[in-house]
Amino acid sequence: MATLLHIDSSVFPGGASASRAVTETFRKTWEEQHPQSTVIYRDLSADPVPHITAHAHTAGFAAPDAHTPEQAAAFAQRIKLIEELEQADAVLIGAPMYNYTIPSTLKAWLDNVILFGRTSGENPSAKGTPVTVVASRGGSYAPGTPKEPYEYVQNYLTATLAGMLALDLDFIVPELTMAPHIPAMTELVPLFETSRERAFQEATAKAKALAERLAA
Questions:
Q1: What is the rounded end-to-end Cα distance, in angstroms, of the chain?
Q2: Average pLDDT, 10 consecutive residues per value, the chain (216 residues)
Q3: Per the annotation, does 136 bind a ligand?
Q4: pLDDT at 108 (0 to 100)
Q5: Is residue 120 part of an annotated ligand binding site?
Q6: What are phi and psi of 172, to 5 degrees?
Q7: Which residues bind FMN (predicted)?
Q8: Strand partners, 38
Q9: Comparing C-alpha atoms, which of 124, 89, 123, 91 is closest to residue 216?
Q10: Where are the beta strands (DSSP E) in 31-112?
Q11: Is 54 flagged in the annotation as binding?
Q12: CA angle (163, 168, 174) in 5-degree steps
């Protein structure tokens, strides 16, 4: 029975969030394909994980029997998040762009699960696990656009998810999501609608393909 780790980080609820709408489509398709599957869900906006602390950080470089009580408590929280990642057969992450990068809550999750010698290093414990990231953004930061140099979401997540954790990374990128709300972007609404529809189609197709891949 397959396990999906689903993480949302948008501060906006439900349909008000472009990333949540697409991850919901992916998850529903996944559950249709895997009706007996397990879904581990974390809403990092509603229930944020602790930001990394000195105790949690230093505990990662010390033997468990040498941990102070403070280190042991902080490290236990990290281990819970790490084990959720390790037991997942697939990972789904909603990563909207805020001020050119990911939400701080998602950064906190990454800081907790990246543990050298376990999830990163020579033999990362979740290596090869497929991860689909819905990287929504209000404008466009695609290659060739004026704001391309300010794209720090895909670049950063490629470095951490694919580089450090060695996950099998794939992106879905709904863009121009602010076009319907900003008068100066009105002429871009058709491009937004095309991007949104493509994102939903990709979410459905990728979820089905992944379900088939894991069932094989």
A1: 12
A2: 94 92 97 90 97 91 87 92 97 97 98 96 96 97 94 97 98 96 95 96 96 82
A3: yes
A4: 97
A5: no
A6: -120, 130
A7: 10, 17-19, 136-139
A8: 3
A9: 89
A10: 38-43, 90-94
A11: no
A12: 95
Nearest-angstrom CA–CA distance, 54 and 35: 41
Angle (nearest 5°) at CA 28 between 22 and 34: 135
* pLDDT of the residue at 14: 83
Q: How far, in Å, CA of 176 to CA of 178, rounded?
A: 5
Q: Is 94 annotated as a binding residue?
A: no
Instruction: Give CA–CA dist 96/20, Å, rounded.
Output: 9
Hey, what amino acid is at 144?
G
* Token pair of 149 as six digits: 């140099």
* 1 class by beta-carbon count within 10 Å (0-12 exposed, 13-18 middle, 19+ buried): exposed
List CB contacts of 196: < 8 A, sequence separation 6 or more: 18, 174, 177
> Is beta strand 130-134 parallel, antiparallel or unpaired with respect to 38-43?
unpaired
Cα separation of 214 and 129, whole Å? Answer: 11
Is 137 annotated to bind a ligand? Reply is yes
**In the numeric block, which tokens belong to residue 177?**
């999501």
18 is in an annotated binding site: yes
**pLDDT score, position 31:** 93
Question: In the prediction, which pLDDT does 64 show?
Answer: 86
The answer to whether the CB of 18 falls within 8 A of the CB of 96 is yes
